[in-house]
Automatic annotation (TrEMBL):
Coiled coil: none annotated. One of its GO terms (biological process) is transmembrane transport. Residues 1-159 form the ABC transmembrane type-1 domain. This is Sugar ABC transporter permease. It holds the Pfam family BPD_transp_1. It is found in: Cell membrane.
Length: 169
């Protein structure tokens, strides 16, 4: 309860807020930190894709009289479509995997927050550490991997029908 936000609240003359005893706010905290954690990777990939676009394409659009907004809408965004689809496939492939490090580092073993913040990975960890239930943990991990594979294959099939050259295989 002595973090940055509580320090700011106290300096503003307000009461401290007990984050770890109020489970309702954690779905927003987790989403915020997950976006904070993953945005950098996506931005680096998009930046690499944008720098890979030939300057001749932008020059041709400029000569044709396209404004900056039109060059973004009609040159940059369409040429980023394959990068967007690839990042979407990677993101959907990892959707069932969760983010154990994020959840465990923020929540830890606070059982008050389990019903709001529990994911498959933290359940497997607790069942393995708490009861040494190796068979159940392995089965849950296997199901998680199989469903993730099915999800990636399904999305890739949909992408292949819509945009064949953007599919993974």
């Amino acid at each position: 309860d002595n973090g940055f936000i509580n320090t700011v609240l106290v300096n503003l003359g307000m009461e401290r807020y007990s984050f770890y005893s109020n489970p309702g706010i954690w779905k927003y905290i987790i989403v915020f930190f997950y976006i904070w954690k993953t945005t950098g990777y996506g931005m680096i990939v998009y930046l690499a894709a944008i720098t890979g676009i030939s300057t001749e394409v932008y020059e041709a659009a400029y000569i044709d009289g396209a404004s900056r907004i039109q060059r973004i809408c009609y040159v940059t965004i369409p040429l980023l479509k394959q990068t967007f689809i690839l990042l979407l496939l990677f993101g959907l492939g990892g959707i069932l995997r969760g983010s154990f490090d994020l959840f465990y580092n923020l929540i830890g073993t606070n059982s008050l927050l389990y019903h709001q913040t529990d994911i498959i990975d933290t359940y497997v960890y607790r069942s393995l550490i708490g009861s040494f239930n190796f068979a159940s943990s392995a089965a849950v991990g296997l199901y998680q991997s199989v469903f993730g594979l099915i999800l990636v294959l399904t999305i890739n099939l949909i992408v292949k029908k819509i945009e064949p050259e953007s599919a993974l295989f």
